[in-house]
Task: structure prediction
Amino acid sequence: MTITAKTLKLGNNINTDVIIPGRYLESIDPEELGRHALEGLDPTFPNKAKEGVILVAGKNFGCGSSREQAPIALKSAGVRCIIAESFARIFFRNAINIGLPALECEGISRTTSEGDTLSVDLANGIVANKTTGTVMRATPTPQFILKLIEEGGLIPHVRALVERS
Amino acid sequence: MNIFEKILARASGKREVTPGDIVEANIDMAMIHDLTGPLTLDSFKKIGASKVWDPNRIVIIFDHLIPASTIRAATHQKNLREFAREQGIRSLYDIGQGGVCHQVFHERGYARPGELIVGADSHTCTYGALGAFATGIGSTEMAAVFTTGKMWFKVPKVIKICVRGKLRKYTTPKDLILKIIGDLGEGGAIYKGLEFTGQTFKEMSIDGRLTVCNMVVEAGAKAGIVPPDNKTITYVRARTRGTFKPVLSDEGARYENVLEYDVTGFQPLVACPPTVDNVRPASELQNVSIDQVFIGSCTNGRMEDLRLAASILKGRRINEGVRMIISPASQEIYKECLREGLLRIFTEAGAVVTNATCGPCLGGHMGLLAPGEVCISTSNRNFVGRMGSPQSKVYLANPATAAASGVTGHITDPNELRRR
Result:
């Protein structure tokens, strides 16, 4: 599975309150959530992301609350993959569970500029920057997580388990 | 093995586990609330399972938007009630019966030493104060747990934090955990476990231990545990019908790192916006004027916290132009405040006492902030827009500091107030 798209860049410690504020959490509608993605930081984000982007971020991306609305909002706004120096653990699991690929890649925020085109090979954990020609190696994604992403997230995976039993 | 490894090994049926191992573990207890529950139900429906794995291991607590603040919130709560009825889940705490989930869950005896607990809320780590491995998960993950009773875990590396010295009257467990988060940094303990030991923790009340473990997620930690002792056993025994087996770390257990603290001479601290690790002494922030005070939340809305706030507010009035919102963390605590005369002290000081709710802490309802406003809060997050407008600011402090600041109208070290 390879994802190619232009990047949008964010800094360190982007928290889930900024990604989707508490007052929107009574919504579970992806479209509605997507309209408010990252509103606290940049109200124009949904407009910038709508063509499909790869988000490049610093350390501790998605820290804070367990709200699954955070990765849902980003995915719905157009984010196809997130590459960060590191992730907060609940956000990481939530992203994978809803089928939004998330990769850890040390140094990515240093070597990538906003607007660069990246090509991400998930299975091999290789991030190729088509704009600069640099190639970086991300922390390899364990096989069972790759499978989860390929299946479209945790719901289809567990549904298959239920159907088999 | 350390406590974290022992609990994960037991729950996954293994004799031994080491950090980095990925295990599939059986979940002992699972909790959802009115804000993460609706998405859990949605995912559960999409999975297509007809029955939850064990209705006796699921707890549903309404606390975020209660009493229902909108028609949508009311509808979610109605759906959760129906789901509980259909599935035979008896442990549903509706308004007037429970309160903030991270108080109600252990107050009603669902948190037991040695158990593996997941909650669809990041502050589920609170129950580590009672010797459980407890961690927050998302809603879809919870729907999978509801279906299978299992979840994968990566065995964490553990940092041991040894603390000695006596905390003083106005320097509380909140100040200790703020200090630790300030040192570790916002993401300093990502994926890790924190084990809290030493004389200070032995002497600390259960309320205080709950405050400390509540905030470990603010440093990114997966869980924080205070080794269970007689205090823990007494607290849990009085509340649970179930049996439990406390677990302690072995002599020579492995730790990634050991940190030592001496709290002697510690001052009341404040986490300044917009990150929880931005910690400074309260005494250095006297020039920060405030509009609102919030005393409550799963961090500091317990009896010990409210007694401390009352000791400041007794016979005093809050400053003109300052609003104070006090939310006891549970209906039980509310009743105890009534018995001890705290509600009278709060209301006579000019505070609004709400029902037990998370409302203001997450900018949900009951006291959102307008652009340009400043709040000092006993809660756990000071992120941009956390309590309302992205142009508002939140400072985090202990209940004495929050109450004293309400009296003066600016951030105040409670020790300074006493001297006046």
Summary: The radius of gyration of chain A is 15 Å. Strands of chain A lie at 2-9, 53-57, 79-84, 102-104, 117-121, 126-129, 135-137. The longest strand of chain A covers residues 2-9.
